Amino acid sequence: MHQWSRETGEPPGAWLSLAETWRLSVAWYHDRLSEAFHGRSPQEAVDIFSSLGLTGAFWALDDATPMP
Amino acid sequence: MPPPTPTNDDSLWRMRYLIYQGFARRGAPPSLESLAASLGMTHHEARNTLRELGRRHAVTLTEDGHGVLMANPYSAVPTPYRVTVNGVDAWANCAWDMLGIPAALHADASIEAVWAIDGARVDLRVERGTVRGPDGVVHFQKPFRSWYDDIRDT
């Protein structure tokens, strides 16, 4: 990914293994089809990221972050 | 043009639920006409309710505002991420979302995807909570806080 970043000039961003992405998917989407799901707050999203070890500036949100 | 009408929160979240049920059962969202009929709304009321869902980022609308383009993790249009769950084919918005569909459905899945780095096809499976297939990584190019600057380009 560092090579891709150098070649494209794009910021490197973040990358997760497929297993890590699966864990993020379960945490993020497990209740998405429920009628009771009405979205989540930025803090709730940060809590999900943090529970999976996704911390730092890339995963940081503030109260004004638009949320799904 | 008729003035906007206030939306009722119960109807709002019921519409959201019906959209997701459409994706789960058929791989595609219901039409605005179908949503209006299911909810006992006029076309005008249904369109305003759909727009409110879009405004709240519960779904992403088509450019004309009359349909659903994305209801994460689902896409209403073809993408490089095709996911089959319970015999239903659906499109995911991105590599994260290709795993998001079986996660949302709590089910196994077959996935046909394309590596972004070289365009090669990759076949993956989700079996009882484990992703099986070639090793690879999922690239998150932009931080989440900027996704809704343009949700189509994350």
Poorly predicted runs of 5 or more residues of chain B? none
Number of strands of chain A: 1
The assigned structural class of chain A equals mainly alpha
Helix content of chain B: 25-40%
Order of helices and strands of chain A: HEHH
CATH topology category name of the largest domain in chain B: Bactericidal permeability-increasing protein, domain 1
Give a brief description.
Chain A has 68 residues and is mainly alpha-helical. Chain A is 43% helix and 6% strand.
Describe the protein in words.
- The complex is a heterodimer of chains A (68) and B (154).
- Chain A has 68 residues and is mostly helical.
- Chain A has one domain.
- The two termini of chain A are 28 Å apart.
- The mean pLDDT of chain A is 88.
- The longest helix of chain B is centred in the N-terminal third of the chain and has 18 residues.
- The termini of chain B are far apart.
- The radius of gyration of chain B is 17 Å and the shape is globular.
- In chain B, strands 1-2-3-5-4-6-7-8 form an eight-stranded antiparallel sheet, covered by helices on one side.
- At the A-B interface, strand 1 and helix 2 of A face helix 1, helix 4 and strand 9 of B.
Give the topology, please.
The complex is a heterodimer of chains A (68) and B (154).
Chain A: H1 2-8, E1 14-17, H2 18-29, H3 42-51
Chain B: H1 9-26, H2 32-39, H3 43-55, E1 60-61, E2 68-71, E3 74-75, E4 82-85, E5 88-92, H4 95-105, E6 109-114, E7 121-127, E8 130-132, E9 137-140
Antiparallel strand pairs in B: 1-2, 2-3, 3-5, 4-5, 4-6, 6-7, 7-8
Helix pairs in contact in B: 1-3, 2-3
What are its keywords?
heterodimer; A: 68 residues; mainly alpha; 3 helices; 43% helix; B: 154 residues; alpha+beta; Arc Repressor Mutant, subunit A; Bactericidal permeability-increasing protein, domain 1; 2 domains; eight-stranded antiparallel β-sheet; 9 strands; globular
